[in-house]
Amino acid sequence: MRYLTLLLLVVAPLLRSAAQTDSLLPYADISAYPTDYAAGTVLSRMVDALGFRYYWATEGLREEDLTFRPTEGARNAHETLEHIDGLTRMILAAARRDTLGKGEAEPAPTTYPALRERTLRGLAEASALFSGQSSTELGEQRLRFSSGGQYSEFPVWNLINGPLADAIYHTGQLVTLRRMTGNPGNPQVNHFRGSAGR
């Protein structure tokens, strides 16, 4: 009995700490929604929808989920997380009005918790920056690239059909991969309502 008590004293704070860290991440719930339909607010909500789906697709992944590769040439889940993080960097750069330079991007964190957190926080920042912008302001926003002395820029339309849609697509792949490893997502998640309750 003494050992059980000691074990609980050691493990309980660690579990509580892990739960607190996860509860501090954005996008566990998006059931509250804005009342205005400004162009930037609609784009912000699209980013939030990605964040919510990503949060629940990546919640509780195990090592065997992260390393699972359905076929030889396919990405495993961790590589897919890295790809989504790269797409998030593009979304965030557009929201910040930054220019993406080839080879200048900060490398993705190597651990699953750090990678997941950086992606979720990047999406939350991008959402906040887009929120409330008028259609005129959003029309002036650009996705900018610079590489080897070459510069290109694209309107927000390309952000929507490019990195944003691609990140949603790959988040769906994560859901499929985790089902294949026997670790389906939380059945309480309601994507229509944007919450993890029925």
Automatic annotation (TrEMBL):
Keyword field: Signal
InterPro entries: DinB/YfiT-like
Cleaved signal peptide residues: 1-18
Name the UniProt record assigns to this protein: DinB family protein
Species name: Neolewinella marina
Upper lineage: Bacteria, Pseudomonadati, Bacteroidota, Saprospiria, Saprospirales
